[in-house]
User: Which sequence fits this backbone?
């Protein structure tokens, strides 16, 4: 498909982390029995009026500041009219002509290169309810119910410009955005529960053509893997369709992960189909400069700033700093370990990205629930740094710490002492073991002196075996080389 250029824009719905809905006092907690969290406002009963949730506005402002956008001091809520069973009012309260967040962008990393993705807007809106289908079959039998617990849940819809040119770029952007909204604490990012949902607008055009092709929207992609596969399939579908003499029809499509394909859902609506007009029940949203300044003052250090600081303060590579700041909890864990090991930050980074992250992924725990605390890990790494134990032995100690729980800085010392794991660092003792191994392995000695490097490793292995793994590896190498070359 080298003759075709892919054009992608993403629309992301981030559920805002408020305790109540955007226009009512109903709870937003996940998992309640159907229709137990739907107030008269959510049900659109006659005579009710919406009241805007201040917390949702504060979340939107924080996001706008984080992406360098313009925060509108005056924005308008509009009615987006369409008819669907899970939309009680017959319209959705959203923002159209004047959104609260305008412009801005996110820097993403793709294949080691940085790309800036421009945002068009981010606007506040309410979520719809949910249709639940049970017992459906090919004959159309079954039952459909409506759960309005989600109706009125506060959303921030974040829209990009059509500037992404591959599925990989779209996934990198989505991951970066997901990291940012969870970092800010404005969204829990739970994709399985629908807190972070992406729609991908995909089109193709011949290389060199300025006009965009006809786009199709793939709705409700709830995992990064499915997003990548859905976009890749849709690109292939559109290119093959055009090359076979057909034309792409603007429509909304769904991705079927079981068949790894997109399929038509409905024709794609344009803005005119929704008959937007200002909501007469809601005054314009007015945001004062003082409110913006207050929210700005309370924001955490952002990932990009922390990446730069990690590189400068701890001497980490750009890759390490980017990996550690992909998640706020991971960055905090690393920084706590590094604070106790100011001269060994690289060692701390390697262990946090390696052993700690590996265990978290295996067990499904969060870093907050990790059995080994930053203090406990720092205590272990001190013993690696000062030569008390080797890196290999440290992994065994770490496994014991993880199984038993380790929050104290002395937890590793207790295990090392109880199991007799201290390295032999006495040069005289190591020299005796080296001499014994050389005397007992003349063939390997001769092979090394004949230029076979593998023979050296074999001798090192015998020495470590003779010391029951306790000899300091660096000293073993130095002493063995000196004796073999003398």
Assistant:
């Amino acid at each position: 498909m080298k003759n075709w250029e892919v054009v992608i824009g993403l629309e992301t719905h981030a559920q805002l982390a408020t305790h109540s809905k955007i226009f009512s006092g109903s709870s937003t907690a996940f998992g309640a029995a159907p229709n137990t969290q739907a107030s008269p406002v959510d049900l659109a009963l006659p005579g009710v009026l919406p009241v805007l949730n201040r917390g949702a506005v504060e979340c939107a402002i924080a996001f706008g500041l984080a992406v360098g956008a313009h925060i509108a001091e005056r924005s308008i809520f509009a009615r987006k009219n369409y008819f669907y069973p899970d939309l009680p009012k017959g319209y959705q309260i959203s923002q159209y002509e004047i959104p609260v967040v305008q412009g801005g962008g996110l820097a993403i990393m793709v294949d080691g290169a940085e790309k800036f993705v421009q945002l068009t807007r981010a606007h506040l809106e309410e979520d719809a309810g949910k249709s639940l289908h049970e017992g459906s079959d090919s004959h159309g039998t079954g039952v459909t119910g409506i759960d309005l617990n989600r109706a009125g849940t506060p959303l921030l819809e974040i829209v990009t410009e059509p500037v992404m040119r591959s599925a990989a770029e779209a996934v990198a952007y989505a991951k970066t955005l997901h990291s940012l909204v969870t970092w800010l604490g404005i969204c829990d990012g739970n994709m399985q529960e629908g807190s972070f949902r992406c729609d991908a607008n995909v089109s193709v055009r011949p290389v060199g053509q300025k006009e965009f092709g006809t786009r199709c929207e793939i709705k409700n992609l709830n995992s990064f893997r499915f997003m990548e596969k859905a976009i890749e399939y849709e690109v292939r579908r559109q290119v093959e369709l055009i090359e076979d003499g057909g034309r792409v029809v603007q429509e909304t499509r769904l991705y079927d992960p079981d068949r790894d394909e997109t399929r038509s859902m409905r024709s794609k609506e344009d803005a005119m189909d929704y008959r937007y007009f200002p909501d007469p029940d809601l005054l314009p949203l007015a945001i004062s400069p003082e409110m913006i300044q207050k929210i700005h003052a309370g924001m955490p250090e952002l990932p990009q700033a922390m990446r730069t600081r990690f590189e400068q303060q701890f001497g980490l590579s750009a890759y390490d700093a980017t990996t550690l700041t992909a998640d706020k909890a991971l960055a905090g864990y690393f920084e706590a370990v590094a604070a106790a090991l100011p001269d060994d930050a690289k060692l701390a980074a390697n262990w946090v990205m390696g052993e700690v992250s590996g265990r978290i992924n295996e067990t499904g725990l969060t870093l907050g629930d990790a059995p080994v605390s930053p203090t406990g890990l720092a205590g272990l790494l001190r013993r690696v740094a000062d030569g008390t134990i080797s890196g290999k032995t440290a992994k065994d100690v770490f496994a014991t710490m993880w199984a038993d729980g380790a929050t104290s800085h002395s937890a590793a010392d207790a295990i090392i002492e109880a199991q007799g794991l201290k390295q032999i660092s006495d040069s005289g003792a190591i020299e005796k073991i080296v001499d014994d191994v050389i005397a007992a392995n003349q063939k390997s000695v001769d092979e090394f002196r004949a230029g076979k490097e593998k023979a050296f490793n074999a001798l090192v292995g015998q020495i470590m075996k003779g010391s029951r793994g306790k000899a300091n590896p660096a000293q073993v190498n130095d002493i063995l080389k000196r004796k073999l070359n003398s």
